[in-house]
Amino acid sequence: MSSFRVVVVDDDFMVARIHSGYVGRVPGFAVVAVAHNGADALAAVAELRPDLVLLDIYLPDMSGLEVLKALHDVDVLVISAARDVPTVREAMRGGAINYLIKPFAAAALTERLQQYAETRRRLTAMGPEARQDDLDRLFGTSPTVAPMPKGLSAATCALVADTLREAGRDLSAAEVAELSGLSRVSARRYLDYLCTAGRAEFWPRYGTAGRPEHRYRWLC
Asked: N or C, which end of the chain has less CB nearby within 10 Å?
């Protein structure tokens, strides 16, 4: 996997070096430039076109918020000692993907970088169009749980869900039925419910003849 290219922006040379070291220890990330003021940060981004900028708010020539507003086509993670709510709100309005208050441990930055990488992976996996359940997972929103149809039981639904999740691959209704000890018709009803609830997905697999076979995969 290619690395996410990162520009580190901080007015303190030693802090910038420390943050660069943190980034360098996270697999899949590489620091391509370090800037100590707003002008150099904008120039580095324009020249190198990185994936992510770690941006301080307190810079000697302009506010990091001004830099944030001037940046385009790049993701920004704000890293600053500024903790007042108006600054945080302005950073959010400016499009910052996250906000980390100094000082912090390396693990805190690592967690946010890994979260960023996972978000980018999910966006790539969505293809040309997103579904609502894709976006719910992406933004951390709990999807509305579809009511369980009459005749279905929570215990059996949990059995089907566990069977599909633990398989670690897509399954047909017949395969789920065999693994769970249910009839194919019952397994199909529970699988369709799990898809409606946004916990699984299905797609048709076309064979040489006849109706396509539905394949199911666990999502949550």
From this structure: N
Confirm if 163 and 180 have CB atoms less than 8 A apart.
yes
The 3-class secondary structure across the chain, one letter per residue, is CCCEEEEEECCCHHHHHHHHHHHHCCCCEEEEEEECCHHHHHHHHHHHCCCEEEECCCCCCCCHHHHHHHCCCCEEEEEECCCCHHHHHHHHHCCCCEEEECCCCHHHHHHHHHHHHHHHHHHHHHCCCCCHHHHHHHHCCCCCCCCCCCCCCHHHHHHHHHHHHHHCCCEEHHHHHHHHCCCHHHHHHHHHHHHHCCCEEEEEECCCCCCCEEEEEECC
The reported pTM is 0.65
Q: Which tens digits make up the pLDDT trace of 5-40?
A: 999 999 999 999 999 999 999 999 999 999 999 999
- The answer to whether residues 138 and 122 touch, using CB atoms and an 8 Å cutoff, is yes
